[in-house]
């Protein structure tokens, strides 16, 4: 067990103002592996002051130099890739291969993309007799969740730094060790003191203090809709910019002409990856009634094959929440065809890959985000019915459409109220804008759209 006592503020690790700590638990064996400081309002204030003081110089740093720091950051993340992957496995429970390729690998791609964008983006443009300057918004408060602990930090910090903003990050309680490794990488990359700061702490204490701080110009939050709503209210009350990446209940629409086996197998893999703890997961599979029984059989077989290959959930609370949803699904009339609420192992926060059939659109498991390895399979009568079901939740983060003909899938995707749609298994693109329609959020991350979130415009007339 390692007891860390510092937080990264103004370019160095300094002790927390208060004595409280947060225990970090390995969800695979329930052992405490480390403690980190539970930051207070004072720590947040020190970090925001450092970020404010560093802002003028960083905002005035030529974009090419900001790009050079981001390239160095990307390289530092590459050098630490194995350590990052091991740490994500230890505190989140992600299987080693997923930890290496996605949790440690994706942030390298995203940091690299913002190194390129910082160098290439036109921070000035002409329109008529005006020059429009794209200037940094200012000090950013970033509040991140545990499910993709490094990706969600990098998807905020890299574009913010590229834009010329300075940042204070408050990472999730469950995964602060990955955030600490990121701070070390930032330091190694030669990012000037105060440009990036890290305060570990509890959401309602350190997170809230950051969102409420009068010297924070933009709050970027990823996490639950309940907390996102509060943060949105705080930010609008103070007339701050806000970006919210919230939950999802994405639909995987399998049209009658699709390759059913492929669509179902890829769909199950999408849900089970990261033990179902993915906001954009396709947790509702929509199948035409004529092919429904076949699809359910395929899905149950695919889920059963996962067996031991998925990791645990992040903590005991999430496991109980997910088990509760499975029980509720069955109580409301869904048919359990794989997995179930029972604990598959004695130790660790594991839940078996679960498939619920005969799910109808109004059921709780078809409406609420479960955030676990649970797939609901729904039946539709025709395309209009499928569209109504697909669009029939408060969320709209992602989705998928499968059809024999790509144009047919695209025509359906155009009618979906959601921020991303993968066509016939199209792969994740770290440059494509990511974000929600409806209650899935406000704003976009990644690529050039993610960069512009951190910019504001000033027009000069000649
Ligand atoms: P959460 O929203 O409570 O936590 C996310 C972040 O917000 C953490 O850093 C947390 O410390 C912070 N936070 C919590 N309360 C706060 C407050 N009052 N003020 C400021 N910051 C605060 O999410 P959770 O409890 O870790 O997970 C609960 C559910 O949220 C999950 O089951 C899932 O449905 C959803 N979730 C979604 C995503 C996503 O990517 N969209 C990620 C994680 C969780």
UniProtKB/TrEMBL annotation:
Its EC number is 1.2.1.3. The keyword Oxidoreductase applies. InterPro entries: Ald_DH/histidinol_DH (IPR016161), Ald_DH_C (IPR016163), Ald_DH_CS_GLU (IPR029510), Ald_DH_N (IPR016162), Aldehyde_DH_dom (IPR015590). The active site is at residue 245. The keyword Oxidoreductase applies. Belongs to the aldehyde dehydrogenase family. PANTHER family: ALDEHYDE DEHYDROGENASE, ALDEHYDE DEHYDROGENASE-RELATED. This is Aldehyde dehydrogenase (NAD+). It comes from Streptomyces griseomycini.
């Amino acid at each position: 067990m390692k007891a860390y006592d510092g937080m990264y503020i103004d370019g160095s690790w300094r002790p927390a103002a208060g004595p409280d700590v947060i225990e970090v638990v390995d969800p695979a064996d329930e052992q405490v592996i480390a403690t980190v400081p539970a930051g207070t309002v004072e720590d947040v204030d020190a970090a925001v002051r450092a970020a404010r003081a560093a802002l003028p110089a960083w905002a005035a740093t030529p974009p090419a130099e900001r790009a050079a720091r981001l390239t160095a950051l990307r390289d530092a993340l590459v050098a630490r890739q194995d350590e990052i992957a091991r740490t994500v496995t230890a505190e989140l429970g992600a299987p080693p291969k997923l930890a290496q390729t996605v949790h440690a690998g994706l942030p390298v791609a995203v940091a690299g993309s913002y190194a390129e964008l910082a160098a290439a983006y036109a921070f000035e443009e002409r329109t008529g007799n005006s020059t429009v300057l794209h200037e940094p918004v200012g000090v950013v408060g970033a509040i991140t969740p545990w499910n993709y602990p490094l990706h969600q930090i990098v998807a905020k910090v890299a574009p913010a730094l590229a834009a010329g903003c300075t940042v204070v990050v408050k990472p999730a309680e469950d995964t602060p060790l990955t955030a600490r490794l990121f701070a070390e990488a930032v330091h190694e990359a030669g990012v000037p003191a105060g440009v990036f700061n890290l305060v570990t702490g509890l959401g309602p204490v350190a997170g809230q203090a950051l969102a409420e701080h009068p010297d924070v110009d933009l709050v970027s939050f990823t996490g639950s809709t309940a907390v996102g709503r509060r943060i949105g209210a705080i930010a609008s009350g103070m007339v701050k910019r806000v970006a919210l990446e919230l939950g999802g209940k994405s639909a995987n629409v399998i049209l009658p002409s699709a390759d059913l086996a492929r669509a179902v197998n890829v769909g199950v893999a999408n849900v089970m990856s990261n033990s179902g703890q993915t906001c954009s997961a396709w947790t509702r599979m929509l199948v035409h009634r004529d092919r429904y029984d076949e699809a359910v059989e395929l899905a149950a077989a695919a889920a059963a094959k996962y067996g031991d290959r998925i990791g645990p959930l992040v903590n005991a609370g999430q496991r109980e929440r997910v088990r509760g949803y499975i029980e509720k699904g069955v109580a409301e009339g869904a048919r359990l065809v794989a997995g179930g609420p029972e604990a598959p192992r004695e130790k660790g926060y594991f839940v078996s890959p679960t498939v619920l059939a005969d799910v109808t659109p109004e059921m709780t498991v078809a409406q609420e985000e479960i955030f676990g390895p649970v797939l609901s399979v729904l039946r539709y009568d025709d395309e209009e019915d499928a569209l109504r079901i697909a669009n029939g939740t408060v969320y709209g983060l992602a989705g998928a459409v499968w059809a024999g003909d790509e144009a047919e899938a695209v025509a359906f995707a155009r009618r979906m109220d959601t921020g991303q749609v993968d066509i016939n298994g199209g792969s994740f693109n770290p440059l494509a804008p990511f974000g929600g329609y409806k209650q899935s959020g406000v704003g976009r991350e990644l690529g050039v759209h993610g960069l512009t979130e951190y910019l504001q415009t000033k027009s000069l007339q000649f």
